[in-house]
Amino acid sequence: ALSHDFGKDIIPSVIDRYVVNAYPFLDLQSGQQSYWRDVGTIDAYWAANMELIGVNPDLNLYDNTWPIWTYQAQTPPAKFVFDDNDRRGQAVDSMISGGCIVSGAKVRHSLLFSNVRVNSYTSVQDSVVLPNCNIGRHCRITKAIIERGCVVPEGTVIGENRADDEQRFYVSEGGVTLVTPDMLGQRLHYVR
Hints:
It comes from Methylocucumis oryzae. By secondary structure, this protein is α/β, with parallel strands linked by helices.
């Protein structure tokens, strides 16, 4: 069965039919292997994202000698609001993209892509939250990937009880919980 995996299916299938060139993933100056990750599984995708928030990641998005040229939507800077004892907008060991609002919530060791809102009394840990998500109040999210456009209802708990998560969402072999709008009963109608 064809899995549409580049390394296992697509590249081997074109070698006999087309002219194929290979490129060694080496830094020509240092001789060290360049960055490459196969992100063909939920666990691999999650791990590659988690690597980005390390102190010295192999793919350093802040390396001025190797700029990444890409389209960047014009969004306001990330915003962290409320500094009360019981609700403090904060993020630690995380990457928070433009347009995000962390409103009285705690984000730890996570990535928030653009235009994500995390509402009061919520904690997000060891997670990847893709663009345009809104996470309700009083949620606890651990070791999850929240798909683009999800509206996570108030009080939702994800990543703490595998059996519960398997009833509602997809849980990978490595214990990463994938949440999509469909799984939340929402129709995906992404509009830029």
